[in-house]
Specification:
Number of strands: 0
Mean pLDDT: 80
Structural class: mainly alpha
Number of domains: 1
Shape: globular
Strand content: under 5%
Helix content: over 70%
Radius of gyration: 21 Å
Largest sheet: none
Low-confidence stretches: 269-278
Length: about 400
C-alpha cells in the first residue's frame, strides 16, 4: 500500500488523543504511591500491549525477531539502547506532569521531544538539505517551525499562570504540587530523553524491512510492519523504568502497597489528606488502615488501563509512519502536536487554567491555534509531495 496523507494525519490524531488521555486513569487511583502504579502501567504498556498487538497482526513474529537478531544483532542492541534512554524520558515525563499539570507539562516536554525527534533522523541520514530544496519540503519544515513557536507560546502561558493562580485553585485542579521552576527543568530533561523513541523507530527500520515481506506473503497489510520494532524499543524502556521503580519501592518501603497497604497518590484531583481520599468501609474495621479490596482491584485496573491507552499512541503512529511517504519524519511532529492539543483540551476541561487572567488564557488559545495550524501546514506539505509521486 502506498502513502495516504489523510490516513496518516488521522492515525496520528488518534495516537495523540490516546497519549494525552493515558494520565486520566491515574487520577482515579487511590492511596497508592507513584512508583507502585507506574510499574504496573509500565508492564501493561511496554510488555503486554505491544506483544499482544503484534501477535494479532504480524504472522511469524518470533521468526521475524530471530531473523532480525541474526542479521544484525548490533542493530537490535541499538534499538534497545535507544528504548532504555527513552525510558529515562518516560520517568521524568511523569514528574513533569506532576509539577506542571497536563496542559503545560505536555506542551513543554513534548515540544522539545518533537524538535529533536523530528529533525535529528533526517539530519543524521543527510536528507535535510534535499528536503529543504523542494517546495513540499519547505512547507513541511515551515509547519515544524510553527509547531516550535506554539511550544514557546505555551511556555509563556505557564510562566504567566504561575504568577496568577492561587493555591486553592491548584488543589482543585489536581496541581497542588505545581512548580514552574522545578517542573521546567524536569520537562526539558524529559523532552530531550523522550526524543530517543523517534531515534529508536528510525534505527528499527531494518526490522520493519524484514517484517514487510512476511506481512505481504500472508496477505496482511504492510501498515503493521513497525509493530515488531515497537516491541524491541519498549523492551529497553521497560528495563529502565522497572529498575527505577524497584529502587523507589525499596527506598520508600512501598512493596506492601501491592497487597493493600495505603500510600499517597500525588496525581489525585484533591489534596491527599482527610476522609475524602481514605475510601474505607465504615462497617469494616479492617479497611481503616488498609485499602478496601474493591478499591485495590480498581487500582490495578486503572493502572493497567493507563498503560494500554498509552501504548496506542505508538500503535497508531507506527501505522501513520507508513503513510507519510519520504517525509515520514513529519509523522513524529504530527503525533507530538496532536498530543499537546488534546492535553491542552484536557487541561481546560480539568480547570487547570481557572483563575488566570485574560492574557494567560489568550496565550493558551494562541498556542493551541498555532498547533492546529502546524498540523494543517504539515499535512499540506505531504499533500504537495504526493502530487509528485
Amino acid at each position: 500500500m502506498g502513502s495516504n496523507l489523510f490516513l496518516g494525519v488521522i492515525y496520528n490524531l488518534i495516537g495523540g488523543f490516546a497519549s494525552a488521555t493515558n494520565f486520566i486513569p491515574f487520577r482515579q487511583i487511590k492511596r497508592w504511591s507513584w512508583e507502585v502504579y507506574w510499574v504496573i502501567q509500565g508492564f501493561a504498556a511496554w510488555i503486554v500491549a505491544p506483544t499482544v498487538m503484534a501477535l494479532l497482526f504480524v504472522p511469524h513474529l518470533r521468526s521475524i525477531l530471530s531473523e532480525a537478531w541474526h542479521a544484525n544483532p548490533h542493530n537490535i542492541g541499538l534499538v534497545i539502547l535507544f528504548g532504555a534512554l527513552w525510558g529515562v524520558g518516560g520517568l521524568t515525563f511523569g514528574l513533569a506532569i506532576r509539577y506542571l499539570g497536563f496542559a503545560l507539562g505536555y506542551s513543554i516536554a513534548l515540544g522539545l521531544c518533537m524538535v529533536f525527534g523530528t529533525l535529528v533522523p533526517p539530519i543524521y541520514h543527510g536528507q535535510i538539505l534535499a528536503i529543504a530544496h523542494t517546495h513540499s519540503g519547505q512547507v513541511t519544515l515551515f509547519g515544524d517551525l510553527i509547531c516550535f513557536i506554539a511550544v514557546a507560546v505555551n511556555g509563556a502561558a505557564g510562566l504567566s499562570k504561575e504568577k496568577e493562580i492561587d493555591p486553592e485553585t491548584m488543589i482543585e485542579s489536581g496541581e497542588q504540587n505545581f512548580s514552574f521552576g522545578k517542573g521546567i527543568v524536569i520537562a526539558i530533561l524529559a523532552g530531550l530523553m523522550s526524543a530517543f523513541f523517534a531515534f529508536g523507530l528510525d534505527a528499527g527500520a531494518p526490522i520493519a524491512a524484514i517484517t514487510k515481506p512476511h506481512l505481504l506473503a500472508a496477505g496482511r497489510l504492510d501498515i503493521w510492519q513497525n509493530l515488531p520494532v515497537l516491541i524491541v524499543i519498549l523492551w529497553g524502556g521497560f528495563l529502565t523504568n522497572v529498575v527505577w521503580s524497584a529502587i523507589l519501592i525499596f527506598k520508600n518501603s512501598s512493596f506492601r502497597q501491592f497487597g493493600g497497604e495505603p500510600g499517597v497518590n500525588p496525581m489525585r484531583a484533591a489534596p491527599t489528606a482527610g476522609d475524602t481520599l481514605v475510601d474505607f468501609d465504615p462497617l469494616d474495621a479492617s479497611t481503616y488502615d488498609r485499602i478496601a479490596p474493591h478499591t485495590l482491584v480498581a487500582n490495578y485496573l486503572f493502572a493497567a488501563l493507563a498503560g494500554i491507552i498509552w501504548y496506542f499512541q505508538f500503535f497508531f503512529n507506527s501505522m501513520a509512519k507508513t503513510k507519510m511517504g519520504i517525509y515520514d519524519f513529519s509523522s513524529w511532529t504530527l503525533l507530538m502536536a496532536s498530543i499537546i492539543i488534546f492535553a491542552t483540551l484536557w487541561g481546560l476541561l480539568l480547570k487547570e487554567w481557572k483563575g488566570t487572567s485574560l492574557r494567560t488564557k489568550s496565550l493558551v488559545t494562541a498556542g493551541l491555534a498555532l498547533l492546529v495550524g502546524s498540523i494543517l501546514i504539515i499535512g499540506y506539505g505531504n499533500y504537495l509531495l504526493s502530487l509528485h509521486q
